[in-house]
Amino acid sequence: MSKIQKKISIKNKKAYFDYEILDKYTAGIKLLGTEIKSVRESKASIKEAYCYVDNREVFIKNMHITEYSNGGFINHEPYRLRKLLLNKKEIEKIEKKLKDVGITIVPLLMFISDKGYAKLEIGIAKGKKLYDKRESLKQKDTKRDLDRLVRN
What we know:
The protein is an alpha+beta fold. The chain has a single domain, classed as Beta Barrel (Small Protein B, Chain: A). The chain is 31% helix and 34% strand. It has four helices and nine strands; from the N terminus they run βαβαβββββαββα. It is globular and about 55 Å long. The relative contact order is 0.24.
């Protein structure tokens, strides 16, 4: 009775464009039953989401998980506050880095682990200036042109 499970990964593509990622962490997410079922159907979005530390706990806000279609009256709130599960040492490292000006926590990737748990890859990031974004676009264009030349 082996079931082939497709890999679910929900990406925040805009994060790499808007921010310079300094460090990455993988955190578990405290979800309700209907939420994990929606995530397994890839009905979630982390584009507008952001993370913050409050009282030595890390939370994610504005992460959208669509209500489960078969949930009935026990469904969840799509934009509720969710707790991220990290070690104390990791939280302390993150708190130290957040004391610098312009540093924030950005969700990068949401995926289902091999054991079936929902995980979130978060990044300690610093916002890019307009000229940095232009430089990123130039690098992306040159890489695309080189790939075309290699193919032909």
